[in-house]
Amino acid sequence: MDESSGVGVLDKAALVMSALETGPASLAGLVQATGLARPTAHRLARALEHHRFVSRDLQGRFILGPRLAELAAAAGEDRLLAASGPILARLRDITGESAQLYRRQGESRVCVAAAERPTGLRDTIPVGSVLSMDAGSAAQVLLAWEDSDRIQRSLAHSAFSAVTLAAVRKRGWSQSVGERESGVASVSAPVHSPSGKVIAAVSVSGPIERLTRQPGRIHAPAVMAAADRLSEVLRRSTE
Q1: Is residue 121's pLDDT more than 70?
Q2: What is the DSSP string of 163-226?
Q3: Which of 30, 117, 175, 203 is disulfide-compatible with 216, CB 3.0–4.6 A?
Q4: Least confident of 69-83, 108-122, 189-203, 221-235
């Protein structure tokens, strides 16, 4: 570290985590990289492991832990929500349909932002709505890039198939017609974190009478462009 914060234990803990940025390290490696005494390095690494800032690999070496990714995701979500308002509003104006942003939460998906169509028939999904991961184009997008085991577990109860998800991955967007709710169609595309992970889905939805039974032919380009703009905002925020 360049400077001391004046709080010694925090400075030393930061040294340990900084040493793990380059990859796994044994206790001896931590001692060498940080300059800390062996008992101190061990005590700090074990304390950080308790709080999930540090973990262990299969060889027992210290590695950065899952808590850091969780905090990074929370910070990314704040940036995502801050940027989503004008992008969803523009998507609504371009398509003439209600636009939403979904994030996965456990075995459900949550509408975290929306821009509603002001008049006429619309598919209103209030912010905060918790929907199933079993149906709908946003659910397809949020599941399509998960690991194969998680996909297989989820498909046991879903309205779509593995073939559907393979098509989503290939073309980069999804559509559904009456899958989540009778008479409603939707189109969705993925938002990627700077590391490339799918962290959200941008959607437009409305009555089948307007979106037709092939809504992707009409709205996929605009939905994908909106999702790409959000992904770009997140990427630039880390530069």
Answers
A1: no
A2: HHHHHHHHHS-EEEESSSSTTEEEEEEEEE-TTS-EEEEEEEEEEHHHH-S-HHHHHHHHHHHH
A3: 175
A4: 69-83
Say if residue 60 is in the same domain as residue 150. Answer: no
Model confidence at 73, pLDDT cuts 50, 70, 90, reads low
> What global pTM score does this model have?
0.69
C-beta separation of 97 from 210 below 8 A: yes
CATH number at residue 220: 3.30.450.40
Q: What is the mean pLDDT of residues 61-89?
A: 81
**Would residue 3 count as lying in a domain?**
no
Residue ranges making up the domain that contains 52: 8-64
Tell me: do 149 and 58 sit in the same domain: no
The neighbour count for residue 24, using CB atoms within 10 Å, is: 16
Domain count of the chain?
2
